[in-house]
Design a protein that fits this description.
The protein is of the alpha/beta class. The chain has a single domain, classed as NAD(P)-binding Rossmann-like Domain (Rossmann fold), CATH 3.40.50.720. It has ten helices and seven strands. Strands 3-2-1-4-5-6-7 form a seven-stranded parallel sheet, sandwiched between helices. α4 links the parallel β4 and β5. α1 packs across α8 and α3 runs parallel beside α4. The N and C termini lie far apart (53 Å).
């Protein structure tokens, strides 16, 4: 997968886990193509990575826009590159009751977290299968393992990513292409603040948090080993298992009562 004309395309590479995944791939000698909206941040990261001797390209793209996503394969080809690793990391969360939600924000989230993942897999997987090699790393969350009141759309979108990627593995068996889901728990990035959950960093015990670079290392390692899913951190692996097997009639009310985005007067 790692040759001069091959690249690892990383979405959401302008911050957080996406930035660290790009750095981890570069440390392993992979050339990277950085995709996100914020071109200034992407160029800063590309300069940093190129200083270490790896190739890094910037393709500023609004992945919420289907037309912009559709142009990505040709833009990569125009650089003389082929995507051998696809990292679908871009995503965000809304919070609060669905009955009080912003319809536009909800649909933008689903477009990015769900539609963009399926779109880019559909566009880049055919060439990987034809070449007989490649890897996909789709970033979900431990939120994928249970319903998440007050982040209903986000939890459901990550459940889609987890199920979708497991199904891809079944389809890709024997092709030389792998698909892995990365399911982080709480991570110290801009994500929580952007989702309106900034206060949770102070109220959540330190042992539950993972750093973005640790998550990236675990995800890239798991992808290169061809693992089905990666859940960084022993506590997160336990909570994901419990979330997956606990009766919904018990679990969902507990989450609803304790979620930090629950309105204070309910």
């Amino acid at each position: 997968m790692n040759s001069r004309n091959r690249t690892a395309l990383v979405t959401g590479a302008s911050s957080g886990i996406g930035t660290e995944i790009a750095r981890e791939l570069a440390r392993r000698g992979y050339g990277v193509t950085l995709v996100a909206r914020r071109e200034d941040r992407l160029r800063e990261l590309a300069d940093e990575l190129e200083a270490t001797g790896v190739r890094a390209e910037v393709l500023a793209t609004d992945l919420v826009d289907p037309a912009s996503r559709a142009q990505l394969p040709q833009r990569v080809a125009d650089l003389g590159l082929e995507v051998s690793i696809l990292v679908n990391n871009a995503g965000f969360s809304t919070t609060g009751p669905v009955s009080e939600s912003d319809v536009s924000a909800e649909l933008r989230m689903i477009e990015l977290n769900v539609a963009a993942v399926a779109d880019l897999c559909s566009r880049f997987l055919p060439a990987m299968v034809e070449r007989g090699g490649g890897a996909v790393l789709n970033v979900a969350s431990t939120a994928a393992f249970q319903p998440l009141p007050y982040q209903s759309g986000y939890g459901a979108s990550k459940a889609f990513v987890l199920s979708y990627t497991h199904a891809l593995r079944g389809e890709l068996r024997g092709t030389g292409v792998t698909a892995t889901t990365l399911c982080p728990g709480p991570v110290k990035t801009e994500f929580a603040e952007a989702a309106g959950l900034g206060e949770t960093e102070n109220s959540t015990p330190d042992f539950l948090w993972e750093t973005a670079d640790a998550v990236a290392r675990a995800g890239v390692r798991g992808m290169l080993e061809g693992r089905a899913k990666v859940i960084p951190g022993p506590i997160n692996r336990i909570t994901a298992t419990l979330g997956n097997i606990a009766p919904r009639s018990i679990l969902v009310p507990v989450i609803a009562r304790s979620h930090p985005a629950k309105p204070k007067d309910t």
